[in-house]
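quick one, 444 residues, struct below
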Amino acid sequence: MQKLLRIGLTLLVLSMITALLAVSCAREEETVAATNPTDNPWTGGDNLAGTEVILFGAYVDEDAARFRTAMEPFIEQTGIDVIYEGSGDFEALITVRAEGGDPPDIAVFPQPGLMTDLYQQGHVIDLRDWMSESDLRESYEASWIDMSRHEDGAIMGAWYRTSVKSLVWYPPAVFEEEGYEIPTTWDELLALSDQMVADGYTPWSISMESGGATGWVGTDWIEDIMLRIHPPEVYDAWVAGDLRFDSPEVREAFEYLEEIWMNDDYVLGGAGSILTVPFGDGANPLVMDPPRALLHRQASFITAFLPDGTEVGPDGDINFFYLPQIKPELGDPVLVAGDIMSAMRDRPEVRAVMRYLATGESTRGWLEQGGFVAPHADVPLDWYPAEDRPYAEIVQDADVVRFDASDLMPGAVGTGSFWTGMVDFVSGDSLDDVLPAIDASWPR
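---
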């Protein structure tokens, strides 16, 4: 009997050991599968573990930390060590490094115009050999691909982050109390402004002072209006210098701007105050008690300048709506800024990182941390925190997306004469003087 018991116990122990080994092996296989450096869609089946890719950009401090966090899943899946280096002097340093023969593997450009300059000098790689346009169309709407394309057909980069500029901010409580409705056309926007004046309010807070960069707020308005009164091809020709500033098309945009900016009943402090108020203070009058103004057009980043404790959202102290269309046949265009990733060295691991960055999956780690809008069409809205979701909806629902024109134009114009021209215009100079002066500064 004891012998039988010993045999039974032995068999039981052996069966338990076998079962445990089976579970352990299964778990090990799962772990290997999850971390297998060839089991992912970016490396093309190559084992690139142990290689290194260096990215250089303008992300610093919190943005740099969030980007590094966002890249961790890729590093774990591929074994590629992705190293990010950031600098506040990126724009100057990237040119020095490229021309000195020491470019990073990938550059993160906040200004596509600089990317284009370096591509034309032979420092940025055409991505068409790395990924097909059909692959890109799985991640981006056509507008984004068009904005990454050089006139020779090259794809110069993959878009990674965007900020939404076509926004008008307002205090929800006042709108509810007065029964104001969100305007959906430019005419409705002007009618709402008139109603606010009749009700004893000042409709608009407009602020443009920005030190040596004073003027960019005005360029954003002109760019938004250009997209609403002309087809995108006209906007593109203007950005490229093929359509002059002193043209009927651009003059028309300034005339629309005058309807709001030069109406002293509309503007807090009158038109003369526009140049003196710091741009970051522009939304503050909307959250005062009582509000001193009810409308402010500015990009999504203005929330960083609001007083501490300000709540943003439909039930908060301040919320936003889409800057309305002007000509219905042009649909709902959106003006954006953002960052585009460009390859400057060609190795298998660099190609793998670029393929990853061109997918919405690459942005998920930053999206979930907040304060981020992805240009990728394959990003589901439920990846966003609730407070960021409306920005994404505006971008995803846009009929046309175009990048900030002044950031695309040559520096002598985009961050030079266009800015100063806006200052001169607000100061009272005639368009007959302002627009030809901007044209004269264009490198020909």
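The chain is about 45% helix and 10% strand.
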